[in-house]
Amino acid sequence: MKFVSRFLLTLFLGITPLAFADGVDAKLPFKLKGEWQQGAMLIGNTIPGNQVWFNSRALSVSPDGDFVFGLDRDEKSEAELKIQSPGAAVQSFKYSVQKRSYDIQRLNGLPPKMVNPPADVQKRIEDDQRLAREARQVDSPRTDFLQKFIWPCEGRISGVFGSQRILNGEPKQPHYGVDVAVPVGTPVRAPAGGVVTLASPDMYFTGGTLMIDHGQGVASAFLHLLQLKVKVGDVVKQGDVIALSGMTGRATGPHLDWRMNWFDSRIDAQLLPGPMPLADAKKR
User: Which end of the chain, N or C, is less packed with Cβ atoms under 10 Å?
Assistant: First the structure.
C-alpha cells in the first residue's frame, strides 16, 4: 500500500486535514475519514503492522490496517495522532478540534425528588452504571464500524446529543444520545453489525437497555426499550430487529434513545447515518 498524499487525504470521503507535523506535508502514513469536531467518529487506515496512538492511547489496528477513534462531547481543542512504522521513529500529527454549542436548559424551584433520585435506589443505579461501564470497555477486533450506519428506527428527532439541564442550579449529566419519537412497539434494528454486550430489561434510568459492540471500542446503546429480541453474546447483522421501542425507565414519552461510545468517549450517533428520511419523519 502506498502512503497517501495530502491531496488524496483531502479527497478521501471529504476529510480535511487541519494541521500536520512539521516536515510531513507530502506523504502521510495513513488516511482518515470524518470531521475533527466534538462528538465525531473518525476512521483511519494505515499500512498493516504500523502502530497508532490517539491522545496517547494505543489503538487496535486490523490486519487490513483499519483503526477508529472518537472525539468526546467535551473533547479538548487540540488532539494528537501518532503513528510508527516498524523500525522507524514515531511521527506526530496535531489537529484542531472544532468546539460545538449545546442546548443548556436551566430549571429552578423544582421539588428535591425531581432533581436527585431517592437514596434507596442508589445501589441499583450503581450496579446499572457498572454493567454499562464494563460493556463500554470491550475492545474486540471486529470492524463492523466500517459499515455505513443506518437509523435503527425512523421518526421525528425529539432530542439531540450534548444538551444538558441544570436543575435548581445543579448541572445534570448531558444527554448523550439522539431521541427518535416513535410509538411504543416500533421495531428497533441494528444500525451496523456486531455482538450484544449488554441486555437488561429494567435499568433504573434507562429501562430496557441494549448495547452492541461494533469493534475496537465502538458501541451502540439503545434505551427505554419495551422488549429485547436478543441476548448477550448474540451476533447481529445490520438491519436485524433487536428490540421493540418503549418508554421504560425514566422516559417521559415513547421514543428510542440511541447512543454511541468509543470506550468512555461519548460520540454523536446522529452524525453517522446521515439525515433522517424525511418521508418517515413527517409521519410522526
Answer: N
| Residue numbers of the domain that contains 205 | 105-281
Of the candidates 235, 237, 236, 206, which has an alpha carbon nearest to the alpha carbon of residue 222?
206
Highest mean pLDDT, choosing among 10-14, 48-52, 111-115: 48-52
The pLDDT, as a whole number, for residue 148 is 97
Total count of residues recorded for the chain: 284
One domain for residues 12 and 145 = no
Last residue of one domain, picked from the residues 96, 117, 147:
96
Partners of residue 140 on adjacent β-strands? none
Q: Tens digit of pLDDT for each residue in 121-165?
A: 999 999 999 999 999 999 999 999 999 999 999 999 999 999 988
Q: What nine digits make up the cell of 271? A: 452524525
Residue in the block written with cell 428535591:
112
Q: Which residue has the cell 451502540?
A: 220
Distances from the Cα of 53 to the Cα of 60, 83, 207, 277, angstroms? 9, 6, 36, 36
Q: Quick check: 18 pLDDT over 50?
A: no
Of 71, 96, 121, which one is at a domain's C-terminal end? 96
Query: What pLDDT sits at residue 12?
Result: 36
How big is the CA angle at 204 (ends 201 and 208), to the nearest 5 degrees?
25
> Rounded to an integer, what distance in angstroms lies between the CA atom of residue 139 and that of residue 177?
21
Record the pTM: 0.86
3-class state of residue 277 by DSSP: coil
Q: What is the 8-class DSSP label of residue 155?
A: S
